[in-house]
Amino acid sequence: MGLFQLANTMRLIRNHPAMPFWKGATRHLAWQARKLAGRFPCEIPLGDSRLLVAGRRVARGPAALVNCMELYDHNNMGLLRQILHEGLARRVFDIGANIGVYTLLLSENPEVEVAAFEPHPVTYRMLQENIRHNGRANATGWQLALSDRGGVLNFSDVPGSPVNHVVGGTGELQQERSDCTTAPGKDERQPTLRVESVRGDDFCQLHGFQPEVIKLDVEGHEPAVLAGLTETLRHVGLIVVETEGREQPVDRILCQARLSGPWACDFNHQRFNPHTSHAEDPIYLSNDFRERLESLGYRFAD
Question: What are the domain boundaries of the chain?
Fold first, then answer.
């Protein structure tokens, strides 16, 4: 682990509203010792689930954060668990599922159906193993990349990496996304593979699956994913989307779908505030879903 990564993790632990710093830091240092000793596979608690970590190459990123903080996105994870346990939504997309951290949280209520998308073949197998290990018959993994058109995409090939991503721009938003993807020089040095892609609207029509809630984190390909979901988004109540460096195209597409935002959730105080750069991933809402949240006691700082 580099000094920058260590400092960033310690910052996240210090800012976590539910994890004492000393406890999270101790867990993280113990995790680094586990990595050095190669004591894998192992499993770690995650809400009502147990996250399987197969080896060192997947022991960074989300797995490391789960180990030291469990619900590392305290506000967004807490909100999603609450609304699904309360029955405010029954069908969910986890786009960019990786090894299944969010998939496991989203599928805790057996009455909720979760479709989890992870295009990398090795990471997909780890996702499937976590679904099976936790007995989540209501969660289905799909080895697909969602995009703005069907076909195939070049995808970085680092098995288990939390930052695998589409390499190069493709589709109708290529020019708009050109400064939002990884720099060409860096991509050219990475091993890649070809993965199957599909438009989200086509997937929903084919499988008769209309998500009411979406979690979207695909390392720069978010605008293309949303462009392929234009019809589906008209019926979505809430979406949590990673937007760093892509705020304008994401905001434009979601506003066209009449989803308000970006919002930041303060889970402990049941409050939504305008999103800032220091908050967790932004949230967009339909008017109807906002009313449902208000019925649970949430307030909005308009």
Answer: 1-71, 73-300
DSSP line for the chain:
--HHHHHHHHHHHHH-SSS-HHHHHHHHHHHHHHHHHT--SEEEEETTEEEEE-SGGGSSTHHHHHHHHSSSSHHHHHHHHHHHHTTS-SEEEEES-TTSHHHHHHTSSTTSEEEEE--SHHHHHHHHHHHHHTT-TTEEEE--EEESSSEEEEEE--TT-TT--B-S--STTHHHHTTTSPPHHHHHTS-EEEEEEEEHHHHHHHHT---SEEEE--TT-HHHHHHTTHHHHTT-SEEEE--TT-HHHHHHHHHHTT-EEEEEEETTTTEEEE--TTSSS-EEE-HHHHHHHHHTT-EE--
Q: What angle do CA 190, 99, 16 make, to 5 degrees?
A: 100
Phi first, then psi: give them for residue 166, nearest 5 degrees.
-65, 135
Q: What is the pLDDT of residues 124-181, one digit of tens each?
A: 999 999 999 999 999 999 999 999 999 999 999 987 688 899 998 654 444 343 333 3
Beta strand pairing call for 260-266 and 283-285: antiparallel
Instruction: Tell me the residue type at 181.
Output: T
Q: What is the pTM of this model?
A: 0.92
**Third-level CATH fold of 73-300:** Rossmann fold (3.40.50)
User: What number is the average pLDDT over the span 279-288?
Assistant: 96
Residue 3's pLDDT is 80
pLDDT tens per residue across span 172-230: 444 343 333 333 444 556 789 999 999 999 999 999 999 999 999 999 999 999 999 99
What is the pLDDT at residue 241? 98
